[in-house]
Write a structure and sequence with these properties.
This protein is 70% helix and 0% strand. It is an all-alpha fold. The two termini are 24 Å apart. About 19% of the residues have low confidence.
Length: 150
C-alpha cells in the first residue's frame, strides 16, 4: 500500500497537536471531554489506528454533538482513511460549533487539497492567517501543504 504525501503530512500534524499539552486555540487534550470514549479515541489516533479512533470518536460525537474537538478529531480520522465526505461533514460541523477552531480549519483545508479543490483549501489558509497572523503551527502547516501541491 502506498501512503500519500497528504496522509503523511496529516499524521505529522496530528502527532504534533496531540503531543502538545495545550493544543492551539486553548483546546487541551490533557483534559479531555467528559465522554469515556474520548481518551481511547485519541490514543487510537496516536497509534494511527483510524478504524478504532472512528469507533470511539463516533460515540463521543453521538453523545456530545456540540463538541468541536471531537468532531475535528473524527474528521481527521476520516481524512486519514481517505473518507473525504464524512471528513468534510465532521470538520464543517466543528467549524459551525467553533468558527475559530484552528485544527479544524487546517484539516478541512487538507480535505480540500486531497480532493483537488485548492481554492477552498486556500480559503481555510486565509481564515488561519486571519486568526493566527503567522503565529500558529496550523497556518504554517497548511501553507506548506498548499505550496507542496502546486
Amino acid at each position: 500500500m502506498t501512503i500519500s504525501p497528504v496522509t503523511t503530512l496529516c499524521a505529522i500534524a496530528l502527532a504534533a497537536i496531540l503531543s502538545t499539552p495545550v493544543a492551539r486555540a486553548g483546546y487541551s487534550f490533557e483534559a479531555p471531554p467528559s465522554h469515556p470514549d474520548w481518551q481511547p479515541g485519541v490514543e487510537a489516533l496516536q497509534r494511527s489506528d483510524y478504524a478504532m479512533a472512528i469507533t470511539h470518536l463516533m460515540q463521543v460525537v453521538t453523545n456530545e454533538p456540540d463538541n468541536a474537538d471531537a468532531r475535528n478529531a473524527l474528521g481527521f480520522a476520516y481524512l486519514a482513511t481517505r473518507r473525504y465526505a464524512p471528513a468534510t461533514t465532521q470538520l464543517r460541523e466543528a467549524l459551525r460549533i467553533d468558527p475559530k477552531h484552528l485544527s479544524a480549519h487546517e484539516n478541512l483545508g487538507r480535505v480540500y487539497l486531497a480532493t483537488g479543490n485548492r481554492t477552498k483549501a486556500r480559503e481555510h489558509l486565509v481564515a488561519l492567517q486571519r486568526l493566527c497572523g503567522g503565529r500558529c503551527d496550523e497556518e504554517r502547516s497548511l501553507e506548506k501543504a498548499l505550496a507542496a501541491t502546486k
